[in-house]
Amino acid sequence: MKDKKIVGSFQLMKSLNKSLILNTIRTHGSISRSDIAKETKLTPPTVTNIVNELLEEGLVKEWQTGSSSGGRKPILLKINSSNFYVFGIDISPREIRFAITDLNAQTLLYKTITMKEEMTSSRLFQMIAKQLYIMMDEACIELKKFVGIGIGIHGRIDADEGSSGFALQLQHRNVPLKKELEKEFRLPVKIENDVRAMAIGENWFGSGVGISNLVCIKISHGVGAGFILNKKLFHGTNGLAGEIGHMFIESSGLKCSCGNDGCLEALVGSEGIKQRTLNKISLGYKTKLIERTNGMIENVNGQLIYEAALEGDLLAKDILEETGRYLGIAIMNIIHLFNPERIIIGGGLAKAKNFILTPIQEVVEQRALTEQAKKTEIVLSKLGDQATVIGAVALVLNEMFSVQYESVS
After folding, report:
1. Cα–Cα dist 173/9, whole Å
2. What is a single Pfam family found in this protein's UniProt entry (predicted)?
3. What is the DSSP string of 195-225?
4. Angle 34-37-39 (CA atoms, 0-180°, nearest 5)?
5. 397: closest CA among 22, 15, 60, 129?
6. What is d(CA 179, CA 402) in angstroms, rounded to the nearest whole number?
7. Per-residue confidence at 3, pLDDT binned at 50, 70, 90?
8. Cα 212 to Cα 192: distance, rounded to the nearest angstrom
9. Nearest-angstrom CA–CA distance, 208 and 381
10. Cα angle 208-332-262, degrees, rounded to a multiple of 5
């Protein structure tokens, strides 16, 4: 028994050191063996042995020679990003986005599949598995070249078990995607709520690079947030952290899908924006939206409202600016609760930045408690529509490059 514990401890240390070295190479872009040893405080022989394994596995490659103050020039190492690949999947209520990327999250193949009918758990798995096989064939990449599958999915998620909990729009409960996909593809599968995946994606590759404390907010059919606090994704006690769509905003607000009145999602989600627009038209407000929908105003949607606002339609502009003010109230509360360095806004509503950002900033500047809080950075997602699918890829990379301790000698 003692020998097994010793072997287990050795393997754990070796695995941690391997991840530490991989992450050091990734964050530096290129670095020599000697500088890895200095950076990680690992011994040169340990670094040499692990680097040799990484070279043999093809995860790292020797790139070019570095500068030297005397003696032989060191050989620089870098991640062999184009030698291995990751599947990223974004499952939303109406469509599924798929991507194949390299280890730098550079997209090689990207597809969007519309869900035209309600999916059972088994049909959802079958659709995903079929699409992954099709994309492998189209990209001419063998399965052995993939390091994992990352999934961002709308709704509450058990990230450890890898199953989706309840999602009001998807109507799925306890879908065992992780178990089924790992069984089918023999690859590690990481699954997370779509907005938390987006937060990791922005932190690794988007508007949140280098930021230790940030909040990502996604506004589309629903509204949610992903929190990265002290460089770690925050789930809360029961995985409920980030459900800001059900933050109470207005006592006389519209009824939310959760059954309560005045939730943020009921005001700024796609259905909420549509309903507020219809209510104002019923009161006699003039708008080009009636013409744009050929009189069938019940077909109005966020895209049409945005286009009308660009053309100077006063009602459309008012709706979007009001949306910005509602968001500003929510963001001000988030700033007071978590004091993040940066807040990133993504989802479909982010495209209306010219109409929503100023009202958001005005609310924060008027109501935030301190001067520093008033100046909290509020920016748009750099990854746009691909934020969650790239975030899903980052889930796999985060596991691959993760370091639990500064160093293990």
Report:
1. 38
2. ROK
3. HHHHHHHHHHHSTTTT-SSEEEEEESSSEEE
4. 110
5. 22
6. 22
7. very low
8. 20
9. 9
10. 115
